[in-house]
């Protein structure tokens, strides 16, 4: 099942941030948060190889990975996207923020844009997220975005699911 158009990568614009495709020219700035399959890139070359895999995952309809861009500086401050479950009409939402932007509200707006896009443009029926039990900031972010805890996993993670406050995102159209 393909849930979005592949002829152009979706650009999503909000008040303070936008979500856009990550470009090769962004990779130097994203080394701190360049991951694929939980492995961090150690070089720009590795980051480019990982980004190529991420781009192919998008073309295959398996994920969508955005850079979160601050409008005032045109700088990528983090990334977010849907990484699993799209073949079932659902999506695992994940995010990473560059450390110098912690606590400034970027991720709340970026994730809100991703949620709205997932519900209203991709037609997702379920959105969930997982984080480490020790990741207090991620837990607070998910709760602020109306996710509720649904499970503790054996891998020391907590799973969250977006619950019926979904109507707030449908009204963002």
TrEMBL record:
<dbReference type="Pfam" id="PF13302">
    <property type="entry name" value="Acetyltransf_3"/>
</dbReference>
<dbReference type="InterPro" id="IPR051531">
    <property type="entry name" value="N-acetyltransferase"/>
</dbReference>
<dbReference type="InterPro" id="IPR016181">
    <property type="entry name" value="Acyl_CoA_acyltransferase"/>
</dbReference>
<feature type="domain" description="N-acetyltransferase">
    <location>
        <begin position="17"/>
        <end position="165"/>
    </location>
</feature>
<dbReference type="GO" id="GO:0008999">
    <property type="term" value="F:protein-N-terminal-alanine acetyltransferase activity"/>
</dbReference>
<keyword id="KW-0808">Transferase</keyword>
<protein>
    <submittedName>
        <fullName>Ribosomal-protein-alanine N-acetyltransferase</fullName>
    </submittedName>
</protein>
<dbReference type="InterPro" id="IPR000182">
    <property type="entry name" value="GNAT_dom"/>
</dbReference>
<dbReference type="GO" id="GO:0005737">
    <property type="term" value="C:cytoplasm"/>
</dbReference>
């Amino acid at each position: 099942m393909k849930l979005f158009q592949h002829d152009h990568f979706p650009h999503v614009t909000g008040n303070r941030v936008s979500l856009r495709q990550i470009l090769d020219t962004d990779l130097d700035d994203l080394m701190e948060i360049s991951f694929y399959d939980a492995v961090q890139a150690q070089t720009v070359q590795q980051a480019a190889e990982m980004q190529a895999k991420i781009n192919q995952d998008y073309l295959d309809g398996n994920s969508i990975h955005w850079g979160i861009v601050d409008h005032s500086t045109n700088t990528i401050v983090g990334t977010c996207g849907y990484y699993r479950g799209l073949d079932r009409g659902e999506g695992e939402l994940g995010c990473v923020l560059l450390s110098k932007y912690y606590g400034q509200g970027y991720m709340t707006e970026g994730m809100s844009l991703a949620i709205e896009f997932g519900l209203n443009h991709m037609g997702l029926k379920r959105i969930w997220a997982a984080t480490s039990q020790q990741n207090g900031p991620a837990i607070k972010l998910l709760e602020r975005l109306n996710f509720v805890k649904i499970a503790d996993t054996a891998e020391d993670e907590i799973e969250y699911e977006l619950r019926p406050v979904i109507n707030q995102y449908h009204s963002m159209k």
